[in-house]
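Re: weekly structure request thread

Next one in the queue (236 aa):
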Amino acid sequence: MPDARKGWRSLLRPSVSQLAVAVLIGGLAFAVTLQIRQDDSDKYSGVRGDELVELLKSLDSANERLGTQIDELTITRNGLLSSTKLSDRAEKQAKQRAEQLSILAGTSGATGPGIEVVIGDPDQRIGASSLLDAIEELRDAGAEAIAVNGVARVVAQTYFLDVGPEVRVGGREIKRPYVIEAIGNTNTLSEAVRFPGGLIDRVDNLGGIATVTKQKKITITALADVKSPEYAQPTS
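Done, posted below.
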């Protein structure tokens, strides 16, 4: 047992050669560490002054190029944003214009202030020509949408025709009494049918009775008959 203890002690006790090797390894590690630090701290120590000046100039040029690119990209971005806003605005205007044209063409319903004209004709003496004159007076007064008896939408192509005792408006037979709804400026439209020699006087002369009522809101749902043109073609 004592011999075993002596063996372990001999292994744990370093020899002179082992100490020498440890010292050499430690010195080498210290030298390498010192060299790395010196390389990092003296990276530009060997560069001449004129070379440093050129290096700074190149850095300034690079910064200037980057600044120019940033400015150009900013201008491009602003232009794209502006173009997007213009496109949105143009789209809204086009949509609004299409809605206005559809009302004028009678292809969509309309609502707004206006007047209601009711024409009683007990003697059946008021025909297509009298109704057409009434419509023309309302158009001249600025009516934007017109319907007769809630079923016949009146547009530029609408015709008025006497068929026996009845009147046909745009292909639809209209029964008496005639009810004309017109959307527009209520005062202007009302005056257009009330002025001396106008619609009310003409109806009265024919033995009929016409009444005019201003309305804050009129809703027209009747649509005009749309026909495809047979001869006319869009210009290029």
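Strands lie at 110-120, 145-148, 152-154, 160-163, 166-169, 172-174, 178-183, 209-220. Residues 187 and 214 are 8 Å apart (CA to CA).
Next request, please.
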